[in-house]
Design goal:
With 343 residues, the chain is an alpha/beta fold. The chain has helices spanning 2-8, 45-52, 80-86, 106-113, 124-130, 132-140, 176-188, 196-202, 267-277, 289-298, and strands spanning 22-27, 30-36, 63-68, 91-96, 117-120, 144-151, 156-158, 191-194, 217-221, 240-244, 257-260, 282-285, 303-308, 317-318, 325-332, 335-341. It contains 10 helices and 16 strands. The relative contact order is 0.13. It comes from Flagellimonas pacifica.
């Protein structure tokens, strides 16, 4: 099962909204097939594992291990449980029952009805951690939310405007290696969110320029549509969702998705509702102090990843205040990365 989890991680950033499942097939204590979920729309892990077995006659005498319950419904691909039954695999070991309402035990029942021996709950805690994005999406009806920011040694998120240039651009607190790590994170999550002020002051691209991987969906908070088409986030190169209070569609830019919400009432909750509607299973919240604090205050977050750089501002915009369980602290040359989880 640990090997299944290892394999599943290879799908990070590519399988959403599907889970990143890993699967191995064992014959006489030897792995004869392995697979993980293909990019969305492609084969599931079980299919890839079965296809990797050279001698298919061994399948009827083998055991299949998988991190998540095999699906039982037709989606983009046929049900995996039917393929397992077709090849008469006699035993299936499952890490975790699938909470998706289209599966939720139906795959297990279908396998058992065919005469297959099924065991559930092997390394269940480890499989839950591995499938955290998928599980939060289906159990809490929202994406897995990662808060990220960088702060100076003295607790400021950004300096006063007097310390900045006139042209909008990011004010870097962290070193090159921390910056590259953030681009890696962007490639791993399905979407990224910032507020109006961050766009107007920094003009970010929110892409994965310093890491190989796909760009995340951009989610922009812009209640009054202050962000013009000259800003990078409006260039149409990546799917972009703008959350606004403006209902006049004549003010909308082509190629951008607009969603109307009420900015005066439970903002984080409404944002989560829109993201769930768009089948976004995970999001990186990078936007300014106010945006980050909104998610913290409403309790809508799962991880907080905080860089502390060597910079000292003495005054400026204070960093958000978050309390949670300390997960780890690691040095990145001159920077420190501290990770908390919402317990």
């Amino acid at each position: 099962m640990l090997r299944c989890i290892q394999l599943g991680k290879k799908g990070l950033g590519n399988t959403a909204p599907n889970p990143m499942v890993g699967c191995v097939i064992v014959y006489h204590e030897k792995i004869i097939g392995e697979g993980f979920t293909s990019p969305y729309g492609g084969n599931h892990a079980e299919v890839n594992a079965i296809e990797s077995v050279v001698d298919k006659s061994l399948l009827s005498k083998s055991t299949l291990y998988v991190t998540l319950e095999p699906c039982s419904h037709h989606g983009k691909t046929p049900p995996c449980s039917a393929l397992i039954i077709k090849h008469q695999i006699p035993e299936v070991i499952i890490g975790l029952k699938d909470p998706h309402d289209k599966v939720a035990g139906k795959g297990i029942k279908k396998l058992e009805a065919s005469g297959c021996k099924v065991s559930v709950g092997v390394l269940e805690d480890e499989c839950r951690r591995h499938h955290k994005r998928f599980l939060v999406f289906h159990e809490k009806n929202r994406p897995y939310i990662i808060l990220k920011w960088a702060e100076a040694q003295d607790g400021f998120l950004a300096p006063n405007k007097s310390q900045r240039t006139e042209n909008p651009q990011p004010f870097w607190i962290t070193n090159t290696y921390s910056k590259q790590m953030v681009h890696q994170w962007r490639s791993e999550e399905q979407a990224i969110l910032v507020g109006t002020k961050t766009v107007l002051e920094d003009n970010p691209k929110l892409t994965t320029r310093n890491w190989k991987g796909k760009n995340p969906i951009r989610v922009i908070l812009d209640s009054g549509l202050k962000i013009s088409e000259e800003f990078h986030v409006m260039d149409g190169s990546v799917k972009t969702i703008v959350l606004t209070e403006v209902k006049e569609e004549s003010k909308y830019l082509g190629g951008i998705d607009y969603e109307v919400i009420d900015f005066s009432n439970s903002l984080a909750s409404q944002i989560c509702g829109v993201l769930h509607k768009h089948s976004i299973t995970s999001i990186l919240i990078e936007g300014g102090s106010q945006t980050l604090q909104t998610f913290i205050d409403e309790g809508f977050w799962d991880e907080a990843r905080i860089f502390t750089g060597a910079t000292i501002f003495e005054n400026g915009i204070s960093a958000p205040i978050v309390s949670g369980k300390l997960l780890k602290t690691i040095p990145i040359l001159s920077d420190t990365l501290t990770t908390y989880v919402n317990d």
